[in-house]
Design goal:
Elements: E1 6-12, H1 19-27, E2 34-40, H2 47-57, E3 61-65, H3 71-82, E4 87-90, E5 96-97, H4 101-112, E6 116-124, E7 134-136, H5 148-156, E8 167-170, H6 171-176, H7 190-201, E9 205-216, H8 223-248, H9 252-268
Parallel strand pairs: 1-2, 1-4, 2-3, 6-9
Antiparallel strand pairs: 4-8, 5-9, 6-7, 6-8
């Protein structure tokens, strides 16, 4: 069997009715030479049965069963350990992607020998949430690290989205720098921490300027609950970022100034 072009890692814990849409979008990708690694994190909504049904139909799907619930971050780490693809992508179990997403990202990365490639995305909220759907467009970038300080500034100011599911990363790059997700039960901004550390090491970054990924908000992560969770996430993120900056000596005074300003904004919210 040839090496897959991309390993797509999907942690699964009670995605409910949205899970099948996710799986359909993945098995329908125009880039067919992929592996889909589903980490079943002790779901209680029968999503394990749905995953098994799809795995029986499609040999590209690998099922990993956690013995206990370890949350998304550590589940992704398990997926990265066994990933065989040239690139690694991450996909939430209640989201869906355009059929050409991984083909476009892979071709961009392969043709330009990029460490990472990202695309634009849209956040979709329930009709009764009172929140309008949002389209997120990344700023244009040169395929080097010249904008690293600007990226850190935007991260601290929350003007760039630190999400991994709109990216693919070269597997060799992830393993060279031993990139890992933190435990989601301790630090809830696990995407942001991975994002920061990955961007610190990036030599070549590319963007596909299409909206290719749809991030779904539903019942448990919208409205007032979502807002409060966001505040807790930002505080956890700032704390983790502070120690990360101290360890790596990256524009510490400037970044801490951004962090202080944003903590003050949270306090006034």
């Amino acid at each position: 069997m040839n090496q897959p072009k991309i390993s797509i890692i999907v942690p699964v814990y009670n995605p409910g009715e949205y899970f099948e849409q996710c799986l359909i979008s993945l098995v329908s990708q125009t880039l067919t030479d992929i592996e889909i690694i589903i980490i079943l994190d002790c779901p209680t909504d029968r999503s394990d049965e749905i995953a098994k049904k799809y795995a029986e139909r499609d040999q590209r799907i690998k099922l990993i069963y956690n013995e206990k619930n370890i949350h998304a971050g550590l589940s992704r780490n398990k997926g990265m350990e066994i990933a065989c693809g040239e690139y690694i992508g991450f996909h939430d179990a209640d989201d869906y992607s355009e059929p050409r997403m991984y083909e476009l990202l892979y071709n961009k990365g392969k043709q330009n020998d990029l460490d990472a490639v990202r695309c634009n995305f849209k956040c979709i909220y329930p009709p009764n949430s009172g929140i309008k759907d949002e389209f997120y467009k990344y700023p244009a970038v040169t395929e080097d690290t010249s904008q690293k300080n600007e990226i850190y500034k935007r991260v601290c100011n929350n003007t760039v989205s630190c999400v991994v599911w709109s990216h693919i990363f070269k597997t060799e790059f992830i393993r060279k720098y031993n990139l890992q997700f933190v435990d989601s039960s301790i630090v809830t901004s696990e995407d942001s921490i991975f994002f920061i550390e990955a961007y610190r090491h990036l030599d070549k970054l590319g963007i596909v300027p299409d909206c290719l990924y749809y991030h779904i908000f539903h019942q448990t992560n919208t409205g007032k609950t979502y807002k409060h969770r966001s505040v807790r996430n930002r505080i956890s993120f700032f704390e983790k970022l502070y120690y990360f900056l101290r360890e790596n000596n990256i524009e510490e005074k400037k970044a801490l100034s951004y962090i202080s300003e944003n903590i003050a904004k949270i306090g006034r919210a």
